[in-house]
Design a protein that fits this description.
4 copies of one chain form a homotetramer. Chain A is an alpha/beta fold and 176 residues long. The first copy, chain A, has helices spanning 12-22, 32-38, 62-80, 95-104, 119-129, 136-140, 161-175; strands spanning 2-5, 27-31, 50-52, 58-60, 84-89, 111-116, 152-155. Chain A contains 7 helices and 7 strands. A 5-stranded parallel β-sheet of chain A has the order 2-5-1-6-7, with helices on both faces. Chain A has a two-stranded antiparallel ribbon with strand order 3-4. Chains in contact: A-B, A-C, A-D, B-C, B-D, C-D.
């Protein structure tokens, strides 16, 4: 099980897809985007759901958190059932977010990977994508790593997603 | 937990989204499309993965089945963790597919819903979508229901997705 | 050249894709969605651009109108260059919108098609799609047809997109 | 009018979106992806249409070329009507492709921009995207630039899309 944590537009899903291409067995990739996709459309912008402020701020309420917690249990069960699982997430709560995952993933062999990207570069990639609320990348770039403990950190500022993925794959092989 | 089974282009995901809108609490919706999205790109068209023949035939191999089985455990765990879960699937194996789900969902309160659509109408909607291998809708329209036992069946041939969803929601309320 | 006019979620793009499948030659399909896709992301929600109010209301400003007018000239030139062109639009201004197209398409052989759908049914399909501002379908269902003159009208309330497309194709054949 | 030419996964559309963000007026962005989207689904993989070989090779037939030529006239007319237009294309025919555009764009003020990306890096980004036929990026990386004459060249190998866009915008300002 691999957990990728990084801010919006730091390059997590690109790395996840490259990992799926370079790892020897087929792995499933889930992420916070697929979770939001699975939620009712009405959760976006509603009280208790998830709100994207015009400045890029993201706040989540109790309903979001409830579904999120259940989804995390599902991700853990998928891994326990024997599938390789890559999950990408945005630890809005820093260390507290990691602790929630640690509890859910107890007993599983987890590789914690920090995906860093310099704030200005991530903000530029957000513009190039064109499909995100502008400002999220900058606001999340550092805060999501606060107090989080990693086995490995990669930085997409000057390193391609495929190279980051190869470093992670090498690390996994060396642990096996 | 609600399981929607029907052929390609029978209208399952439209019903799932309407259910998310009409059910009182927020439910998560997963489906075979989100599973394929989570798999490595290389699973499509590969031995052991999933192959879409030009005539609309779909065949899955052992690697697909392994990831599929793990994903089903994850869906079950999400529901056991307390989230309302709607899953849409295509029971390519008919009754055998249902039995696999029944085993995984043991102990959960499940509503089995058959989503039917006349073959010719589903085939026409496949053309209107424009993003599917042509022929799947016709090939799957009846075979996916063979030997499957439902609590409720809806037919999108002449009934809108929202009306189907409301019938399902009424059924759930009457059971509560 | 075929112009399809109808409210949001009335089924215009499904009919366009079916027309592409049933017409003898290959036709290009453009629409208001592809225009918005071609605009800067910042046009959405900005003064002078296009605003989607929470109740489904849509208002466009001078910058939107300027790009829209230039895009219409491009659509006309594509048809004049000899390609079959299907365009789907939402005549927010009713007859005035049609007059703008008539001016731009002067000299071209145009089939004007009204795509109707009962307000409540279109609103339900908007829920089933899950990717549109709720309320647009109901607000636009009738107003976009006010004062507009058609060669042919289809109604997707009880008729499938493919059947509507076949009626349009038959009409074209009978005119040829 | 800005024409961006580069191989698949060289970063053209990211640059186009950044240009839309940094240029003072609103510009429309069209590209070969939007053209393919506008074509009938049946054009993909058909004789006379466009074929993507498993090794990443792309070949186009007479029907594709006919629609392509008409679409180019439409792009030119949009620019002539007064809108700023950014078009991204893949000059599979090198200098011959440029000549076709030059003919269509006659009389317009055009900035020709080459978007380069080292073959291996583009191939890696193709893996990270996960939605393209693998191999296109490598096959197209150099051949699309053969004999093409540019006003400006950018290289996304080590330069971010936003920085490339800013260089292009500065060039435009200096010409004005």
């Amino acid at each position: 099980m691999i957990v990728l944590n990084g801010g919006s537009s730091s390059g997590k899903s690109g790395i996840a897809r490259c990992l799926q291409a370079v790892l020897p067995d087929p792995w499933l990739a889930f992420g916070v985007d697929s979770l939001i996709e699975a939620m009712p459309a009405s959760m976006q912008g509603s009280d208790g759901g998830i709100e994207f402020a015009p400045d890029g701020g993201v706040s989540v309420g109790p309903m979001f958190r409830k579904l999120d917690a259940a989804w995390m249990e599902g991700v853990a069960a998928t891994a326990r059932a024997g599938a390789g699982v890559i999950v990408d997430d945005v630890f809005l709560g820093g260390a507290a977010s990691q602790q929630r995952w640690q509890k859910v993933l107890a007993g599983l062999d987890v590789l914690w990977v920090g995906v860093r990207c310099e704030r200005a570069v991530a903000a530029g990639r957000e513009v190039a994508r064109g499909d995100r609320v502008q400002g999220m990348a900058a606001l999340q770039a550092e805060v999501v790593h606060q107090g989080v403990v990693y086995d490995l950190e990669v930085d997409t500022t000057h390193t391609e997603a495929l190279d980051c993925a190869q470093r992670i794959a090498t690390h996994i092989r060396s642990q096996a």
